[in-house]
């Protein structure tokens, strides 16, 4: 049995991999630039998926 | 110690470690890793990843099954048939491992978790399928912290893939030199300038390398990244990796079967003879190594009889072609891997115990060497007794092909050599192999001057 009793959710995590200061800073900059395009793309994909579901629902049953 | 032995490669992560007991592998969760493990389990993420065949299945055991008294919990993961390393993978294998890692990171982010490391060594191949093996790599994402493993991912995956795609496939060997991934400044310097105009490589590699140099003593505490931004970053990495293709280049062995001196009938006869010898080979049926396997055509013949077949070859082009062919094959238990027999993967890493040498990962139940011995004995001047010794070290049984000096392939090799290679005869071959093996059967391959031997190691 895998016992997880008395486990308290810690508020911090201990990273053992050195993320590197330059990597952290670049990551924040790059992610900021990428986010708008990502949001547009995912919203567009969701909209297309929604429209294709509605289209298939409206198609007359044979 | 209750008969258990800690895996020497498992020491970096304070959340837990891997140990062996009675030939079985276990992962002990230490108190610092318990809260994350519990959260991952309760979220259903482990179950989702195992269901999607992304993460290695594991049984959960009580803490009392641990190796030490500090155990908070224990996992018993399924056993990997054969452990391989990134420097033994071809381009498509490294790419598949990279996309697996990013897929897991994406799924983690969607549930409020993240990968705390993105080491290529966290991926192993079961046949041709990559699988993530480190259950403790997943941690809860606290606040808007950046992805701690971003740099590691770029060093372990993106840099070698880009170098193999835009410079030379053989640069995958750099992973053997730098066990924690190829330095980004080196990769940036080696890549052609044209790659600076490719948005993914420009951001994640070239600008990344410059940022590392510029901000090495800066303060990273102000770098905050929302969950959506993390997903955008992961999506960009996925697109960048997906866009990379292996560089096409000339190869000694890539067209080997097209240029072979076998007639169609002789090749068919050789296949039938190998199949018969494989069926008659003594010993267990777990692991088969085909040495100098090219694309793994003959390893495929052993795949029906052995649980796992490793098709070793020194040519990354041949391994690349083999991996693609095996991925679509009926039996997917053939794993093509890169290995130079004259300079095989060494033991390396901390105290030489972190990554095992090629021979430490053997022996196989069957070692095959088809059209190989002349390359070792003539091409690399290895005396025949040493060739026999190598086969005895890596296989309990062996199928070995002897190619005489009169064979057109050997004649071609000897054209540029002045040495007579007087000891390279079939009689000397048999003397050398009889020192370590019993010859069960030998048979000439119809339509050729070659002889195939089925051998059983004589253990003194």
List key phrases describing it:
heterodimer; A: 62 residues; mainly alpha; B: 460 residues; alpha/beta; seven-stranded mixed sheet; five-stranded antiparallel sheet; 16 strands; globular
In short:
Chain A is an all-alpha fold and 62 residues long. Chain A has one helix at residues 21-58.
* Assembly state: heterodimer
Work out the number of β strands of chain B.
16
Largest interface: A-B, 34 and 57 residues
The percentage helix of chain A is: 55-70%
Radius of gyration of chain B: 24 Å
Beta fraction of the residues of chain B?
15-25%
Derived structural class of chain A: mainly alpha
Please give the alpha-carbon distance between the first and last residues of chain B: 32 Å
- With helices defined by DSSP (H or I, 4 residues minimum), what is the helix count of chain B? 15
Biggest sheet strand line-up of chain B: 12-11-10-13-14-16-15
Characterize the biggest β-sheet of chain B: 7 strands, mixed
Summed over residues and divided by their number, the pLDDT of chain A gives a mean of 78
Rg of chain A (C-alpha, Å)? 22 Å
Q: Pick out the low-confidence regions of chain B.
A: none
